[in-house]
Design goal:
The protein has 18 helices and eleven strands. It is α+β, with helices and mostly antiparallel strands. The protein folds into three domains: about 5-85, 2-Layer Sandwich (Phosphorylase Kinase, domain 1), CATH 3.30.200; about 90-250, Transferase(Phosphotransferase), domain 1 (Orthogonal Bundle); about 255-425. A hairpin with a 2-residue loop joins strand 3 (about 25-30) and strand 4 (about 35-40). The longest helix is centred in the first third of the chain and has 20 residues, at about 100-120.
Length: about 425
C-alpha cells in the first residue's frame, strides 16, 4: 500500500491522481521535478504482461506529442511501476473549459502528429480517446499504451480472437465482430478513434456516438466523417492524409491563399501574425515543388522565421521530411537544391532534436551534391559548415565520420578547403 510521503526508489509520493482499469497514478517528485508514478494494480498475469508491454511500446517513442516514459521498476512486493511525464490535465478537462478556434486546430494537429509518429514506428494504440490524451505544458500528448501493440508482433498475442477492448463511440464498428480484428490492431482502428477525438474537440465536447454535422462547422465535418466511415476502405488510409486535409481546411480559412500574397503584406502584420499565416500556407503545400516554392518565399522573411519557437521549427522539419518521403514523382530541379540548402542552414541550428537535424542535413546536403550545384554547396559551406564550433559540431561528429567521402566531394565541387574542425573528425 502506497501512502503520501512514501519514498519509492528516490521518488517522494505527493498525491494520488487517479485510478484506471490497469493502474493507479500518483504524483511524485525527485529533486525539483514532478513525475507521474503509474502502479500496476492487477494480479492477473495477462494484465501484468500488458503493463510490461506498455513500457516497451512507450520506451522506443521520442516525439513531443507522445507522453515520455522514463523508468520501469518494481516495488518491494514485486508490483510493477512506470515513471512518466506528469500531465496537467486530460483533453477531456481542457475541452470542457472551452477552446479557442486556434486551440482546437493546434491540439488536433498535435494529436494527429503524435499518432502518425506512432504508426511510423510500427505501433498502434488501439484506445485513442480524450481521457488518454494529456496536456503537458500546453501540448497535447498521447498516453496510456496499455492495450497498444507493435504492428509486427514481437511477443505472444495478449488479446484473444474474440476479445474486444476500446471505448464506445471511439471504437470502430469492426471491433464488434468476432474475427480477431482488434487483436490484429490495424491502423484503421486508430483512425476511426481519432475521428471521434477530433469530433469531440471541434464539437466542444459532444460525444462521438452521437456524431452529427450540426455540432461542427461545415468545413471540418467532411474530414471527421471520412475518419468515421464504417467501411475501412473508405476511411483515410493514413494519419498523414488527415493532417493534409486539416491543413487544407486551415488554409481555406486564411485570408491569404498564396505565400506571395502574404509576403507582399509583410509590413502590415506583426512578425508572429505573419509567421502564423505562413505556416498555414506552408503546411498546405502539395508536393515537393510547392513546398520548395513556399519555403523560398518564407526564407526571404528571416526575422519571422527567427520568431519561431523550437516546436514550430520541429514541425516544419517533420513536414519537409514527410513531403520528400511521400512525393516520389517530382523531378528535383537544380535550383531547388539552393532552397534546400537554405532549409538546412536556417532550420538545423534551431532544432534541439538531433535526429531531425541530421535527417534534414543529410537530405539537403546529398541532394546538393547529387545535383552538382555550386550555389547550394557554397551556401552550406559558408553559412553552416564553416560556422560550426567545438560545441555546435558535437551532434554531427558521427555523421561527419560516416560521410567523409561526401564532405570531400562537396569541397572538390566548389574548390574549397574543408573546414579544419570538420577534417579533424575524419
Amino acid at each position: 500500500m502506497i501512502h503520501i510521503g512514501d519514498n519509492i526508489q528516490g521518488y517522494t509520493v505527493i498525491r494520488m491522481l487517479g485510478e484506471g482499469g490497469m493502474g493507479i497514478v500518483w504524483e511524485v517528485t525527485k529533486g525539483e521535478k514532478s513525475y507521474a508514478l503509474k502502479i500496476c494494480n492487477s494480479t492477473e498475469e495477462v494484465q501484468k504482461k500488458r503493463f510490461e508491454r506498455e513500457f516497451r511500446l512507450m520506451n522506443v517513442l521520442d516525439c513531443p506529442y507522445v507522453l515520455k516514459v522514463f523508468e520501469q521498476g518494481q516495488l518491494d512486493d514485486g508490483t510493477q511501476f512506470l515513471i512518466e511525464e506528469l500531465g496537467e490535465c486530460t483533453l477531456t478537462d481542457i475541452v470542457k473549459r472551452g477552446l479557442t478556434t486556434k486551440q482546437k486546430y493546434d491540439f488536433s494537429m498535435q494529436i494527429c502528429e503524435g499518432l502518425a509518429y506512432i504508426h511510423q514506428q510500427g505501433e498502434t494504440h488501439r484506445d485513442i480517446k480524450p481521457a488518454n490524451i494529456l496536456i503537458v505544458d500546453g501540448i497535447a500528448k498521447i498516453s496510456d499504451f496499455g492495450i497498444g501493440r507493435f504492428i509486427e508482433r514481437d511477443t505472444t498475442t495478449l488479446t484473444t480472437t474474440t476479445e474486444t477492448w476500446g471505448t464506445y463511440g471511439y471504437a470502430a464498428p469492426e471491433l464488434y465482430k468476432e474475427d480477431g480484428e482488434f487483436r490484429n490492431g490495424s491502423i484503421a482502428i486508430d483512425i476511426y478513434a481519432l475521428g471521434g477525438v477530433l469530433y469531440y474537440i471541434f464539437s466542444e465536447g459532444s460525444l462521438p456516438q452521437f456524431f452529427s454535422y450540426k455540432e461542427v462547422s461545415a468545413d471540418i465535418y467532411p474530414v471527421l466523417a471520412k475518419c468515421k466511415e464504417n467501411n475501412t476502405n473508405e476511411r483515410y488510409q493514413s494519419v498523414n492524409d488527415i493532417i493534409k486535409a486539416i491543413n487544407g481546411v486551415m488554409l481555406a480559412k486564411s485570408r491569404y491563399r498564396t505565400m506571395m500574397d502574404l509576403y507582399n503584406d509583410r509590413d502590415k502584420l506583426l512578425l508572429t501574425e505573419w509567421m502564423e499565416n505562413a505556416l498555414q500556407i506552408l503546411f498546405g503545400s502539395q508536393g515537393i515543388g510547392e513546398l520548395i516554392s513556399n519555403f523560398r518565399i518564407v526564407s526571404y522573411n528571416r526575422n519571422a522565421l527567427n520568431s519561431c519557437g523550437t516546436d514550430e521549427i520541429d514541425k516544419i522539419i517533420r513536414f519537409i521530411l514527410r513531403i520528400f518521403e511521400e512525393d516520389k514523382s517530382y523531378w528535383l530541379q537544380f535550383e531547388d537544391t539552393e532552397v534546400m540548402a537554405k532549409m538546412a542552414v536556417i532550420l538545423c541550428p534551431k532544432t534541439k532534436d538531433i535526429d531531425l537535424s541530421l535527417k534534414l542535413l543529410d537530405l539537403c546536403f546529398k541532394s546538393s551534391i547529387g545535383a552538382n550545384r555550386w550555389e547550394a554547396l557554397r551556401t552550406l559551406h559558408n553559412d553552416l559548415f564553416s560556422k560550426w564550433d567545438e560545441t555546435t559540431i558535437q551532434p554531427y561528429i558521427a555523421y561527419i565520420q560516416s560521410n567523409k567521402d561526401s564532405f570531400e566531394e562537396y569541397a572538390r565541387i566548389i574548390n574549397v578547403a574543408i573546414p579544419p574542425l570538420i577534417r579533424h573528425f575524419f
